[in-house]
Design goal:
Number of domains: 1
Radius of gyration: 17 Å
Strand content: 15-25%
Shape: globular
CATH superfamily: Vaccinia Virus protein VP39
Order of helices and strands: HEHEHEEHEHEEHE
Structural class: alpha/beta
Helix content: 25-40%
Number of helices: 6
Strand order of the largest sheet: 3-2-1-4-5-7-6-8
Bound molecules: S-adenosylmethionine
Length: 216
């Protein structure tokens, strides 16, 4: 049903896109909180909600994406802002910090300039984690990030997180393993507090990567 709505909206080029977010697919009880950045059109946000989280804020810079978020997550706190200027301190202690920081710097379809690319926001994510001190972290990106040319950068990100007390790991996940009718493989950085048992659904069936973070 969700796919039908999206396709219809795409065909008529009408923004914001609308997909079904009925109570059927939204769990009634949201006991955990999430701060999501670079929320885009809300694909990940929908999954986060379905995993039982309530968003305290959705941060996104693109106006059209924000309109889509507001339409599909009525009443939610959509913050239309550049992440570089975002102050996360009101959300200190949030259960989950998550997001899909821009993938262009790591995409095989681009120049793969990594941290040299102005669009890279991993260090902004680290700043926000430092200031908001979430209980868990999950950042998604393309698998290009797992290429050996980015080994040092991935380690750098892990070391920043370790300095902050987060023992994070890189993994690859395929959406098709989670009931999504699409093979979309992504690199995922996560640090899950063992007390956040509800998050198990997000991390099960993962394919482990070796110590250098290279896909095995
Ligand atoms: C890969 S998309 C995220 C997709 C999203 N996770 C989803 O499921 O729909 C990256 C998003 O980051 C946003 N973005 C890029 N630079 C940003 C910035 N400096 N501040 C806030 N958002 C930014 C883009 O507008 C884009 O929507």
């Amino acid at each position: 049903m969700a796919t039908r709505s999206v396709n219809k909206a795409v065909k008529s080029s009408v923004w914001p896109l609308s997909f079904s977010t009925s109570e059927k697919i939204r769990p009634a009880k949201h006991s955990l909180t999430a701060l999501e950045v670079c929320a885009g059109a809300g694909g990940q946000a929908l999954g986060i909600e379905r995993a039982g989280f309530r968003h305290v804020a959705l941060v996104e810079m693109d106006r059209h994406a924000c309109e889509t978020l507001r339409a599909n997550f009525p009443g939610s706190n959509v913050i239309e802002q550049d992440l570089r200027t975002f102050d996360p301190t009101p959300y200190h202690g949030v259960d989950l910090f998550c997001g899909g920081v821009p993938c262009q710097p790591f995409s095989q379809a681009g120049k793969m300039k990594g941290s040299e690319d102005d669009r890279d926001l991993f260090m902004e994510a680290i700043r926000i984690i430092e200031q908001a001190r979430p209980r868990a972290v999950m950042l998604e990106n393309v698998t290009g990030l797992l290429q050996s040319r980015f080994d040092d950068y991935r380690l750098d990100i892990l070391q920043h997180l370790r300095r902050l007390g987060y023992d994070a790991e890189w993994h690859t996940l395929n959406s098709a393993d989670y009931g999504v009718p699409q093979r979309r493989v992504r690199s995922v950085l996560e640090r899950v507090d063992i007390h956040l048992v509800q998050m198990n659904a997000l991390t099960r069936q993962r394919i482990d990567i070796n110590a250098r973070g290279v896909c095995s």
